[in-house]
Amino acid sequence: MFHFKHGGRGGFGHGPFGHGPFGHGRGFRGGRQRGEMKYEILEVLVNGPSHGYDIMQAIENKTGMRPSAGSIYPALQMLEDGDFIKGSERDGKRTYEITDKGRELLTQREPQPEGFDPSDLFGVIGDAMRQVHGIKDAIKQIARTANPELYKKALPILDRARRELYALLAEHF
What we know:
The protein is mostly helical. 56% of the residues lie in helices and 10% in strands. It folds into two domains: 28-111, Winged helix-like DNA-binding domain superfamily/Winged helix DNA-binding domain (Arc Repressor Mutant, subunit A, Orthogonal Bundle); 121-172, no CATH class.
């Protein structure tokens, strides 16, 4: 879920409207680069007005990952507050449509590097998270043994993995 901080008059702080070296934001939220959610929403709305659920479905169809309601609805509210989209009630549901200001924002989206396929990135992130959860499950099993010797043997393994991951990061940044 995104955490929003309004950056003051006319600007946005961190969250899906933040700034940094990965496009408009650094880091990933739910497998997405920070700042991408607003563009994904706007791209859906270019095709016509949609309900929040329909927007989530369209993003899932495009990216293979379904955004949570906890990320979509706050992003919709922030886009509406910034006059990038306009919401209205239709058939008892809130429907959103892109405004001219939203279309202009969409044209400002930084292009992805050539050959970039977000679905490749999402798969790798998913694989990495499965590994993290597997490590966590192994540590839980060690904890259930209540054997201090197993803990002592596990600590250097965990420390080595952490150090190697930071070394990998250092090579690329």
